[in-house]
Amino acid sequence: MPAQESVPPTIRVNGSTRSSAGSSSSLRSGRDAGGGAVDSSSTRSVHSAHSHASSPARLARERRRAMSGSSGVERQRTTSRNGHGNGKAVAFVDGGGEKRAGRRRAHKVWERVVTHEWISWIPPRWSWRSWQPVIRCAVAAWIGLVVQLIHPSELALGNAAFFVLVVAFMIPPYQSLIQALEIFLNLFFFCGLGWAWVCLGVFCADKTRVPTSAAVIAAAEAKWAAYASSPTIYQVKIIYDGTYLQAKPAVICALFLAVGTGALLWWKLRTAPSPATFPLVLSCILIDVSLSIVPLYPTAFYTSGELFFKPMAVQAGIATVVAFLVFPKSVADSFQHGLAGVLAPIEDALGDISDLFAAASKMSTFGVDDGGHLAAPDDDDVEFNGKLSRWADRSEAIRTKLYSSLAGITPLRALERYLAVDVSYGRLSGKDVRDLFALLALVQVRAGGMAFFFDVVIANTRHSHLDSSAFSVRDTHAAASRPVSRATSRAPSVRGPDDTPRQSISIDDAHDTGLPPAPTAEDHSHHESYFHHRFHLPTILHRRSGSPAGLPRSKASHISLLDHLRRSQQPVGVYESQRYMDVERAISSDTEHMLEQLELLASGSRPLVDALRAAVRASTSWCVLVDKKRAVREPHGARLAEQTAALQGALDDFRGARLDVIRPYKHLFDPTHPPPDDEALQKVKHRGLFCCFVAQYHLIEFAEALLAYMRKMEELDRARQKKQLWYPRVSSLVKHFSKAHAKEDATARDDGDPNYGDLDDGAALGEAKCRDPDHVPFDTPAYNAFSKLEILPDLLWSRSAMYAVKAGAIGVLTSLPAYFKSSTSFYYYNRGIWCTIMLISALAVFAGDTTTAWIARLFASFWGCLFGMVVWYIGSGSGQGNPYGLGAICAVTFPFAMFFRVHYPGAILTSVMSTSYLNGTEVQLTNASWGWGVAWRRFICVVIGITAAWIFAFIPPRFSAKRAVRDSYSRTIASAGAILCAVLSNAHDPRVHVDTAHELDTRAQLLAARTKLAKLGVRHDNVRHEYSFRGRWPEERYTALLATLQDTLSLLAQLNHVLGQLERPWRKALLERTRLADPLFLGDILAVVSMTSTALKAGTALPQITPAPLVARFRMNSSKGLGLPHAYDPAADAHGELPSLVTADVLESDDYMRYALAVTTTFSLISRLDGIVVICKTLLGENYHISHLHLLNSQV
To answer: Closest Cα partner for 202 from 312, 310, 297, 313?
Structure first.
């Protein structure tokens, strides 16, 4: 049938059948009927209808809208196309629906179970590779148990043989061999040091001991004469009854316990997390156990440390041997799989980018989903905004995946120092893996640059430069804050001080004056609706003269919300939000051009993205299979070479295809038309082109970094054909264990640079140094050197010193029952030492950390006691211990217990089963018998110890984790400001190229700052548990500050990198364009950094009006659009010239692409500083209010 005679499909709308080929008015009427409202504008002319129907995409959207408008009742009534439905059919459909609903409910329940925090950690770790360290740890623990189950070896271990399993679960050998060896060496060293300290205390205590009265000894012997038939029990009863206990030796032992425990915990605080963390805790246990029983013995008990040291040494030796024999793991092997783990999220993100670009290359249908949910097509702006919003939604998921690859870099960087001392058997040495990791880190950074591109798109689409979950009115009665509909409400007129309407300024005029256009009524309605939806801000953003509250009369529905906000917290950042509305209004009118540029970018970039994805997949396969058999790995090696060549070809093609994004601007440079002047170039909408340049730059950089990484793998694949044993040198071992890592000299200068020494005004301002506001330095150098001794009192009263004092004092207080004759027997027979052990394990500097440890220890001890009882009664029944049954049941249950210990973010620590066996098979020396008798006593001791630690955490000197986190963020902001100054110093370098040494030094500072910031984010979980009657901790605001600071440091790293690629003329043009050469603007930036950092540290409010938003001042530059600044004189530079006229060749050059990227990066960086100001205002509040200030009259 010919196309013109085809019968159009019919659509049922409210019981009537209509043809989809009818006029658009009929379709619109059907849609309005389904929605319950009829628009009078639905009556259109036939010519207009046919013009609309002639667009296939528009017709498809209309058809979907008409179908979605039909009611559900009508769809249920229509059982078949010909109308022959019956009751059975309906019943069958209903029954099937019930089954599907039941399956959906079951599926939801199952999803809620598997996504619960107690279960969700299991599926990602349920693999053979994750089970290998678990089996290794379980074997080590089981062998230690078998040593205890054998009677002769149990006697040799002594009365504290149960410490074998304590050490087995506390320090399992789940890491690589060299890491386990380092931990156990630290364990032997610190426990030996603790034993030496105990011996010194025993020596001092013995010097003060006097002979015990014979009458006292005779009375004790008569008291326990009933146990004389058993010499061991008889001596224990006499000793632990306090017969030989004296005051002076007890005081000395308590003093040595306090000093030793405090010193070791102080060192643990200074070095944690490190391989010495758990060894320091175990050395504290040795000191506490030994010094709590030394005063009870009549002679110098120098071997008291052996009570703990012997089982510890046995288990450490077993674990070391098992780590070498059972699934041995090397650092190089961990790195190889870690490299693949970093690349996996990047590969997934590249696949999503390819799909996004494939859809975006057809912008006529992009953004229309299966349900046809899109804005009404009669408004082109809304349609373009809907498509761009659709792009932003998908871009956000891609950005998240790209950022997730960074999570794999941090653990690998922590392992990097072990590569020099690694013992491995494979094709790659530790140095080879280190070289690969250095290249992979660059690959990840360049992939993060693509995340920046999507961030730019999202921010420009959603106008979220100031968007933050930290606003004080977030989620506050959100239902009461309803956005105003554009179709049904009229925006209030904007009047100036004289109550006359303001005259609007066109966008072109705004570009001429460097100012954004004044808001129109329609713009205010749109932005008012947007800001109500985005920030839930009341309408005080739109003030009117003569209204002190700033509330328009037509907005009475928001009075209740305002009243609530005034009773709780006033909104902040109103000034910044209003200024940002003015700025964004000037750049929000080129959505159509933005879509066109994204379409060109997608069509030209997709081949390179596909090649990048294939190359990443090949790199991942090579990393995983590098040590496999030759028959398995050779095909992947050949595939790696093929993908390297394919990627190089795709990159070469992309360098030419990327120029398509300039096609819409080539008419400006057509020789048949007059050349554009600077004013015309400044009016050109360049936002989309600059975004494309950002994506292209990062795609090229990512491809080049990946090519370098793959070529290094090819080189290693050719050079390392066979496996071999790699072992470190003795000098490397000594250097590693002494931690004497010499830093590379990053201050060397390139004396071959002809511009070296041409520092015309580099030191004109002098060096910036801090001063003591309360003291002036002495004129005599000797006095100044003597004044340095004043730091000693500061160290004694520091937070770490006070923590050590408190830890020692609390350790003595919980051990006091052991030093009194009336309570020493009770303390020993009920294992009161476990109170002290758990106290030192749970005590932390901050109350929030101690609360977190209290919760973790409570749950771990409860489940540990339950697990121990179950294992005991299964293996021994109601008896006193069956070694064969316990050995069998533990062989089955230990792997699951170790799986929890190794992979769950917590610890299971109890020795119910081993202590029960010790008491059941040997002489029962305590009141704890076995099974339940041991479990409840152990659990009570744990609760007492951790509760004592929690109570003492609130006793002065008390340190707040909230204050510490706030101070850390303050220092991070200050560090970001210092790094920004270092980057700008490189940018102002008068030499042709930036000094490489300075650039590397700045990169090291950025790496250190980002590492500290990552650790700071982990501390949020502990701060949340620091409760206060003043209110809850605003975690969402600090999380927003954390995300903003992470973006700030990433942008600083990106700006530092691109400046190293720009020559001096382009750098000066960048500084002029971004006003980073303007001292007034730089003063505003540094004032914002200093103001926010100081205010956070002091906890003081920020002024209501600040130099922010800096973006408004950023846009007051003299150069805009595609033009280049003219403040730079090309003749003044003998090393290169900046093009005096922007042509098509200039736009196509790599230098202009880097220049555009630097401009976009600087804009994003400045907007992050504005975001820091707003977030700090939500945390600190505002002061210095000025009444009757008309925000709408403030010129930007």
So the answer is: 297
